[in-house]
Amino acid sequence: MAVHHIPRPVRRLILINIIWNLGSVIGILFFNGTHEVGTPTYIGRQILFGIQMFFWIRTGNECYSIGEEVAFSRHNKIRILLNGIGSFVVVTFTILLAIAPEAVTRINFLGFTPFSERPIFNSAILIYLLFLLPGYLATIFQLCKNGMHSINKAAAQTSSYMAASFAIFIAVAFAFDIIIPLLSGVLSSDSETQIGTSQILIWNQFMAMFLTLLCGQYYTSVSYKNKSSYWLLNKLISRMEEGIIYFDDNGQIVHANQGAAKLLGISSTSMKGKSIKSVFPPSLEFFRETVYNDIRITIGGEIHSFKIHFFRNSQTLTTVLNIAFFVDQSKTLLLQQNLKTLNDQYVEYTHDLVRYQDRLNKEASIKAEKENVLNTLINALPFRVWYKNEQGVYQKQNQQDIEKNGAREGASDDPQLISSFERDARDLGEVRVHPSIEDKDGKEITQDEANTLAKNGDVYGFFDNMYIPIIQGKPPYKTLCIKVDMTEQRRLEQERNMLREQKFIHSRLEELGTMCGAFAHDYNNILGSQIGFCQLAQEMLPEGHQASMFIAEALKAAQRGKTSLEELLNAIRGNANAATPAMVFSPYMIIEDVVKKVALTLPPTIVINSQDLDHSLKIKGIVASLDRIISNLANNAIFAMKKTGGTLTFKLHEQVLEKELITPYAPPVPAGHYAQMDISDTGSGMDSGTLERIFAPFFTTKAPGEGLGLGLSSALRLLKEGNAYFTVHTTLGKGTTFNLYWPLNTETETETKKED
Question: Cβ contacts of residue 676 below 8 Å, gap of 6+?
Answer without folding.
Answer: 651, 652, 653, 654, 655, 739, 740, 741
